Sequence to fold (1028 residues):
Amino acid sequence: MSVMGTRVVRIEDHKLITSGGSYVDDLREPELTGAVHAMFVRSPIAHARIGSIDVSAAREAPGVVGVFTADDLDIAFAPGPTGEPWLARDRVRYVGEPVALVLTEHPYQLADVAELVDIDYDPLDAVIDLDDALSGRTLLFDGTDSNVAGGKAKPFDEKLFDDCEVVVTRTITNQRVAPAPLEVRGAACAWGEDGRLTMWLSTQNAQIARDILAGGLGVDPGTVRVIAPDVGGGFGAKIGADPEAVVLGWASRRVGRPVRWFETRSENLTAMTHGRGQRHTVTIGGRRDGTVLAYRLEVVQDAGAYPRAGAGMLPGFTRLMAPGVYRIPRVEVATRSVLTNTTPIAAYRGAGRPEATAAIERAMDLFAAEIGMDPAEVRRINFIRPEEFPYTTPSGASYDTGEYAKALDAVLSAGGYAELRAEQARRREAGDVVVLGLGIAAYVEITAGDGMGESGRVDVNPDGTVTAYTGSSPHGQGLHTSLAMLLSDQFGVPMDKITIRHGDTDEVPKAVGTFASRSLQLGGSVLKQAGDQVIERAKEIAANLLEASPDDVELNVDQGAWQVRGAPSGGTVTWAQVAAAAGEDGLSADVWYGDVQPTFPFGAHLAVVEVDTLTGKAVLRRIIAVDDAGPVVNPVTFQGQRHGGLAQGVAQALLEEMSYDADGNPTTATLADYPFITATELPDFELVDMATPTTRNPLGVKGIGEAATIGSTPAVQNAVVDALAHLGVRHIEMPATPQRVWQAINDAREGR
Amino acid sequence: MIPVGFSYRRASTVDEAVGLLGEYGDEGKLLAGGHSLLPLMKLRLAAPEVLVDIAPLADLRYVRTDGDTVAIGALSRYHDLHHDEVLRQHAPLLAHVAGAIGDPQVRHRGTIGGSLAHADAAADLPAALLASDGVLVAQGPGGRREIPAGEFFLDPFTTALQPDELLVEIRVPGQDGVGWAFEKFTRRSIDWAIVGVAVLGQSVGLINMAGTPIRATRVEEALAGGANPAEAAELAAEGTSPPDEPHASAAYRQHLARVLTGRALERAAGRVPAGL
Fold:
C-alpha cells in the first residue's frame, strides 16, 4: 500500500523534541573553537547624519577583540544612490540600522562594550508617513530627487467605470507586521587554513546566502561554504543573507578567529525585515445585479529605509494577483514603493499576495454592502468558472486550475452559513450586546512564482539505503518527511532507509531553497525526476542480474525489489544488489528542474466572530477553511501549514502591527508590546478538504505554505465589519483592536 | 538581553535578607520570582548593583487562617494561590485573580509579595488587594509593622516600604459570603490589563486607571448611598488618570472602566458566595 496521502508522523520531530535540535547557537563544531562573540551597535535614531564615532573607550574595555565601523570595512557595498551599506556610513536611516560591530571574548561582555561606542548623531527629519515620503520634502538619499523606489502613479483611466451602476472606493491600510520567528537571526563562521570561509547561518537559502557572502566579501563563491543547520522559522525574512552576515564574515577574516552572533529579540523586532506595509485605494464598480465590471487598485508600498524585496517584488505580486478569483473585465493596477525611515520591508508569509487578496476581498464586501446583496452571492456571480481554466487575468496571471465556487460552497455548508445568518439576525433583533459577524474570503494565490529552478539528487547506496540531496531548505515545515514519503513510494524503500540532506553548499552546490511555497512542487518534482532516472538505470542493471531483457524487468514497489515481469517466482534482486552492481559511478542521478511553472492554490474561508459592542473587543469563534493545493502528500504536515497560516493570518486581522511614532521610534519593539497570537486567541480550526491538481508539475501539487494566511486575514476582517454592518459600519482597519472597533461603532452611531 | 553586571547575595533567613538590605541600601534589590525585575534588567531599564535573592525563604510560602483573617506568605506563588483550598474558600477573589495573571510559566514563578512590592499600576493583585482591604506586613531591622493597602501604593512603582524592609505577609479579612468579581480587559489572555476591575462586596479596585492601583471611591460612595450597580458604574472613571496610548486612549480606558465596573458589580451581586 502506498504511503502517499497517509498521516505519517514527522521524522524531524524526534530530534527536535528530544534533543532540542541544533540551531546556530547550539553548534559545537571544532572549527568554532575559540570563537569570539559579536554584537552590532544599532542606531537609536530613525534619521540622522553621523557626526563622529569614537570607539576608543570601547576598544580598551575588558575582553574586547575588535570594534569596527564602516570606515574599517574594506569591502564595497551595493552600488547606486540607494545602495544599502554593510554598516551605516555618514547617515542612519532607521532605528536598528547597524552602525558598528563589537567583538569580545565572552558574550556577556558585548552589551557593556556596545554602550561604550560613542556615536554623535545629528538628527534629520524622520520620514514615516507615506504621504510625507511621497512628497519628497525630506529625501532619504543624497543624489536622488524622490523617495520613490519603484513603480509610478499611472494616469487614471477615466472611462474604467463608465458603464457601472455602482462605484465604491475606499483607502485601506495593510499594516506592517513583524515576522518574529521563534529562532532569531544568528550566524557562526570561521576561515579555514585552506582559505575558505564556512558560515553556519540561520537561513532559508544556503546557496543564495553563499553568493551574497562571496559577492560582499569579494571572493569566489567556491571559497565560501554556507551551512543551514536546524532553522527555527523564517517566514520569508530569512531569505538569503542579511548585511550582518557579510560583516561577520569580514570581521572573522580581519581578526583571524571564528565569530559567533545571534541577535536579541528586540533587535529581531526592529532589525529583521518587516512584512506587508501597503496602502491600498480600491475602486470597484458594477451593476446592481451583482456583476463586477471594473476594479482599480492603487498601491503605495512602504519599502522601509532601503529598497529590498519591498521595492519591487512585493508590489509586483500584489499587482499580478489583484483581481483574485473573479472574472473582472477591466482591471487597472498602479503601484509605487516609497522609502521611509523605518525597518526595510521584505517577504513575509505571502509576500504581496495577502495584500492583493485583502484589497479585493474588502472591495467585494464594500460592493456587496452598497448593492445590498449577500457577500457570498456577489462572489458566486463573479467567480471564474472551472471550465474557463487555464485563465489569463487582465493583470497577466495565467491561472492553472480552480474550483472557486465549489470551495466557497464547501465552507458555507460546513459552517452552517444560513443558520449563522439567522443567529446573527436573532441577536440583532434582541439587541444583544455581543453581536455575531460572518466574514468570507475567497482567494487564489501564486506559488513558485519566482520562476527559478531547483536541484535534486538521489543516490542508492550499496547497502540499499537511499540518500537524497534537495535544494529546498526546510526550516520547520516537515519537508524531510514529505520528500522521504515521495521516494519511499517511488522506490519501495522503507522511510527509515531514506535520508534527506539539505542546506550545505558543499553537498548541494546549486539550489534556490525555500520560499514562495515552492518546496514540494519544485523540490519534490525534481526528486521525482531524479528518482525516475535512477529507476531507468537500475532497470538495466537489474535486467543484467536477472538475465532478462530490461523490457521484461519491473520494480515491485511493495517489496522494494526488482523482478521479471509476470514471473515473481523467478527470483528478485534487491536495491542493494543493484546499487552494488552499478559500478564506480554508483547509482545516482542529479537533476536541475528548470522548467518552473507557477501554480495557483485557492480556497475560501468563513470566519465567525463575536464583537462586544460595549468594549469593542472582537473574538474569533470559528474559522472554516478550504485550502486547495492539489493532492496532499502528508495530511499531517499539510494541516500543520494550514494551522500556522491561519494563526498568522488571524493575527494580522486582529492583533499585530509594527508601529512607529512620528519620530520613527518603534513602539512595538519587545514582545510585551508586539502582540503575536497565542493558542488562547484561536478557536479549533475547521478544515475542509479539497484537492484540485495542477497540470504544471509532475506531482500535480501546489504550494500550501502561505495559502491559509492569505485567506484568513480578510475573512476575519470582513467578519468584524459584518458584525457591525447593521449599525452602518462599512470598514474597520487592521488590526481590529478593541479601541478601533469601539471607535467605529461610535462613529457610525454619530453618523460620521 | 544581557544585564549590567551585578553582585548576587542569597538570603537564607528573613533576618539575613533584612540585614543585607540594610547593608546595601538603595543599591540592593530583592529578587523573588524575577518576572518583573529580570526583564527590566535585561532591557537595561533597571541596573541594581546587588540582587538579594529571597527565593530560598520557603517559610514565607503559606496560606493560613488567623481568626477571621487570611494570612498569605509574601513568597507564595500565583499558581499555588490559585489552587490553595484555604484561599479559595476564604478569599476567593485573590485566588481567582492569581490564576488570571500572565501564563502558566509566569504563575509558577511570580509571587504575591513581588507583585505588590513592584507596584505596577497595570498589575492585577494590587487592585484586588485594595478592594479586599488588605494589610501588608513589612519586616525591617526594628521588627514588623503593618501597612494598610490603601497607604501602601504611593506612586508608580513606589510603595511605603523602606529600603531595608522586606514584605513578609499579606493579610485580608475573610471574604466568606461576600460577592466578588474580577473583570480584566486584555487583547490576549497573557497580556497586562488595558483596564481591570476587582469587586468585593461594595469595594471596587481599578487596574491601570492611574499611576497606582486605586479604589473607585465615587462608585463605592454611590453604592453606599443606595445606587444600583448600573448607576454606580457610571462613576467609575471619576477621578481617574489612566495612561493615554495609541492602542488605548485615556478616554477609551475610562469608557472601559465604566463598562467593566458595571459588569463586575452585577456579577458580584449575583455570584454564589465562597466559590470560584
